[in-house]
Write a structure and sequence with these properties.
Length: 182
């Protein structure tokens, strides 16, 4: 499963290993485990792009963030991203100057985006599409999903977790407030 994430966020893949069907559920803890595995394999998790800027934290710092979140928040971290006071609280509890509320939000956005894409790929594969073998295949699945309108509905459900001026997670190329956030 790590090869899936690594391939889509960095444009590479973990060698020739074939991609697995994305999981039905995907928690923040699982994302952090993927980042930790990336570091073990020599990839700096801090340079993985969430689509909203570099996260800028290592796996140890990501684990620290998770340790101050409830089980409910780990399952649906967008609930934290919607509340500025909770973002600030989690960042402060970490007692690390590098962990800011902005970086906590970036981690949450990376999770939300990954979960959204994994869900869409899973749905497409279960409806007969083949697993993507390249980023181009992945982009074709996403494009088909955009045309169906499914991604727009999913992205609307994330309203509040995304900044209005951020790129829309439906990959339309528009700002969130001008697309699914409206």
């Amino acid at each position: 499963m790590f090869d899936t994430l690594k391939g889509f966020f960095t444009g590479g893949g973990g060698g020739k290993k074939e991609m697995e069907l994305p999981p039905e559920t995907f928690t923040l803890k699982e994302l952090v485990e993927m980042f930790a595995k990336a570091e073990e394999e020599g990839t700096d998790a801090g340079v993985v792009n969430s689509g909203f800027g570099k996260i800028g934290l290592d796996a140890k710092q990501l684990k620290k963030i998770c340790s101050f979140m409830t089980e409910e928040e780990l399952i649906d971290p967008t609930s934290v991203g919607k509340r500025t006071t909770r973002l600030n609280e989690v960042a402060k509890l970490c007692e690390d100057d590098e962990i800011t509320s902005d970086k906590v939000k970036r981690v949450i956005l990376a999770h939300a985006t990954t979960k959204l894409m994994f869900g869409k790929i899973r749905k497409a594969v279960l409806n007969g599409a083949s697993l993507p073998k390249s980023v181009a295949d992945f982009e074709n699945i996403v494009r088909d999903l955009q045309k169906s309108g499914d991604m727009k509905q999913e992205a609307r459900n994330l309203k509040g977790a995304y900044s209005n001026n951020s790129p829309c997670p439906c990959n339309s190329g528009k700002r969130f407030k001008r697309c699914c956030g409206s």
